[in-house]
Amino acid sequence: MNDALNLDDYIRKVPDFPKKGVLFYDITSILTEPRAFRYCIESMAEIYQGKRIDAIAAIEARGFVFAAPFAFRMGIPLFLIRKKGKLPGKTLSKKYSLEYAEAEIEIHCDDVPQGKQVLLMDDLIATGGTLNAARSLITDCGAVVPEIFGVVGLPFLHYEKALAPTPITTLITYDSE
After folding, report:
1. Among residues 110, 155, 156, 118, which one has the least CA distance to residue 136?
2. Has residue 23 got a pLDDT over 60?
3. Is position 46 annotated as part of the catalytic site?
4. Residues β-bridged to residue 79
5. Paired residues of 80 in beta bridges
6. How many degrees, rounded to 5, is the angle at CA 38 between CA 162 and CA 156?
7. C-alpha distances in angstroms, 149 versus 81, 92, 118?
8. Residue 135 CB partners (closer than 8 Å, separation 6+)
């Protein structure tokens, strides 16, 4: 892993978005800098090289951006977890609570490899609500989630409580806003 790169330099902080009082950690600025994006993908590959990961599941939409090149690099399948109404055909869905709303995600159970180890990932882990619902969908479809990965982690929002006992790995964490 190239430790010389400070990933924090490539994460834009946007105050009062999506609502007043929230500091938004924007990973899209990582994507505009090939060196930072490459660092993320190479770091993920280094972390999971030699671990038994049979597939990766990614959360809509920014999680897709990181999961696709990682899946390609590792030679493993990628399946998508989307917002309700975005996947055609037969799906399994799960409602969950956000900080100030409710949401619903869905999955094609046919895409989930039965009995296999699926790495669950998103670009940023905040409260863990979306990832908790996604983990539930994956296990309901017959796979195992041995670990959760996020490029950015906000542990001050206590995501580890929502996601326990599953181990969580991030490339960078912020301990406060």
Report:
1. 118
2. yes
3. no
4. 57
5. 58
6. 25
7. 15, 22, 11
8. 120, 145, 148, 163, 166
Helix (H, G, I), strand (E, B) or coil at 50: coil
Alpha helices, H only, the chain: 28-31, 34-48, 62-74, 129-140, 159-163
For 130-146, the DSSP string reads HHHHHHHHHHHTT-B--
pLDDT of 97-142, one tens digit each? 876 678 999 999 999 999 999 999 999 999 999 999 999 999 999 9
Give bridge partners of residue 127 from the DSSP assignment.
Answer: none
Verify whether residue 73 is a known catalytic residue: no
Q: Are 149 and 44 in contact (CB under 8 A)?
A: yes
**Cα(50)–Cα(31) distance, rounded to whole angstroms?**
27
The rounded distance, in Å, linking the Cα atoms of 140 and 64 is 21
Residue for token digits 């609570």?
Answer: 97
Choice among 12, 35, 46, 99 that is catalytic = 99
A 10 A CB-CB count for 161 gives: 10
| φ/ψ (deg, to 5) at 67 | -70, -35
* Dihedral (CA of 27, 33, 36, 39) sign: positive
**Of residues 37 and 21, more confidently modeled:** 37
